[in-house]
Specification:
Elements: E1 5-8, E2 15-18, E3 27-28, E4 35-36, E5 43-44, H1 47-56, E6 61-66, H2 71-86, E7 92-97, H3 102-107, E8 115-120, E9 123-129, H4 134-146
Parallel strand pairs: 5-7, 6-7
Antiparallel strand pairs: 1-2, 3-4, 6-8, 8-9
Bound molecules: zinc ion (ZN).
Length: 149
């Protein structure tokens, strides 16, 4: 899924652009007012989209730093997708291609990939390199959700 996120209404087919602060909310179609589900898929972001989502998100954000040539990244990708589905409404999952966004990789000193970070209220609260099980990623997000500030 690309950013900005555009959701097609199942009822009337209208395309609704979802602002970063509402990615985890149940919205309403601008045309027919049908409920729109919170985003339940990883969102591919470039540097400016990353900054926007991290700044505006009102739920924890998991960021998957990856690259197409990285075997472990490709292996863990289905788990990241399943996690985004499971956590729809409670968390946002972003994917950063380290080949196309080297600025973000250097900003967060990403030395090896896959590399996962969790952000809460605009701040990095967790970082860990290496592929991990989905339950582990979910526990990072659930822990971040309980943190104050
Ligand atoms: Zn509609």
């Amino acid at each position: 899924m690309q950013y900005p996120v555009v959701t097609t209404c199942a009822q009337c087919g209208a395309k609704n652009r979802i602002p970063a602060r509402h990615l985890a909310d149940t919205g309403r179609c601008g045309v027919c007012k049908t409920a729109l589900s919170p985003v339940g898929a990883p969102i591919e972001v470039n540097t400016s989209a990353f900054d926007e989502v991290i700044r505006d998100a009102r739920v924890p954000v998991l960021v998957d730093f990856w690259a197409a040539w990285c075997g472990p990244c490709r292996m863990v990708a289905p788990e990241v997708e399943a996690l985004a589905r499971e956590m729809a409404g409670k968390a946002i999952v972003l994917k950063v291609d380290t080949e196309s966004e080297p600025e973000l990789s250097s900003r967060f000193r990403i030395a090896s990939i896959p590399n996962f970070m969790v952000f809460r209220n605009g701040k990095a609260v967790f970082q860990q390199p290496g592929a991990v099980a989905r339950a582990q990623m979910r526990s990072w997000l659930e822990h971040a959700a309980t943190q104050v500030g």
